[in-house]
């Protein structure tokens, strides 16, 4: 894709940073408190039932997104990435806002399914940035996008926790929907996309384009699988942290949950921008392997945490590591993928990430319900070690 009037990628990046920050702020304004909402507003008592409904509500959106994301990705390469980003923001705004009216756990699960099928702002923004940014700046630019996601994830739970205490979680969900709607403004007003080339029936398909680069297919399969696995680890850990804090603090868990995820988001935001300093020195593969091993150790601390303060500190450290792993892996995917196939490949990547959102809560909630929260955290730490092994053995240093 060669633009006739080059797009100002820096201007796009600034606008997309604010758009993604607002969108993720809207999501994280409420969703870290799903377990508390199910318990306090929908009347599910703590214990096995709460664990299972939390797992269902947390995972079903990932299942829907896993199915829908490749379709949205293909449509993005065909009709443009900007329309797909707007679609994801509007879809999220509607489905998040409607949770205000939910009265039963099954209604919540249905809305979470619809949210997964219609949203996916991170994948859409990532594809747009990867296409419009010069190749030598892709890693840094995707780190900037990840920093917006991380910062929104940091501030959202803190503000959401305080708002939930003051106004109740129903209004928090309504506010999240409004924020998602607001996030479309910088995209509509500022973001520009290079004109798509007319479809050429003689042009090789997506797989054929990727195969033109030796080893790219294998590298992309492993990297996309790694993104799915780190999402399993992250979502399971987030859910289990909430359940751990409920065990420790009871109804007082809302505020400290917000603080914990706020600390994780702040540390993740900083590392998402600064991780390229490390990759320039030791490379992408070593950075990912080391960060994954440290993440496993940090989750291990959560297993034996004696009090809520240790939980908050460990969650903050895990955010630091997660903030390096996600953009580094996305950068490797972008550098391995031809320009013409970026949206399609990131669509499949979003599907893997979404499948991680589906599996992670099932693993965490399922093991917690049948065994215990500490045992579920121990299994999650083992998955982080598996991620380190997959990255070390299966990936390669991308050409820049």
How would you concisely characterize the structure shown here?
Helices cover 81% and strands 0% of the residues. With 400 residues, the protein is an all-alpha fold.
What's the topology here?
Elements (H helix, E strand, L loop, with lengths): L8 H20 L5 H7 L7 H32 L1 H18 L6 H14 L2 H12 L5 H30 L1 H14 L1 H6 L16 H6 L4 H34 L3 H30 L1 H21 L3 H29 L5 H29 L2 H22 L6
Name its key features.
mainly alpha, 400 residues, 16 helices, Growth Hormone, Chain: A
Could you walk me through the main structural features you see in this protein, from its secondary elements to its overall organization?
It is built from 16 helices and no strands. The protein has about 400 residues and is mostly helical. It has one domain (about 10-190, about 210-395): Growth Hormone, Chain: A. α7 (about 140-165) packs antiparallel against α12, α7 (about 140-165) packs antiparallel against α14 (about 310-335) and α12 (about 255-280) packs across α14. The protein is globular.
C-alpha Rg (nearest Å): 20 Å
Number of domains: 1
Number of strands: 0
Mean pLDDT: 83
Provide the CATH architecture: Up-down Bundle
CATH superfamily: MFS general substrate transporter like domains
Low-confidence stretches: none
Query: Mind describing the biggest β-sheet?
Result: none
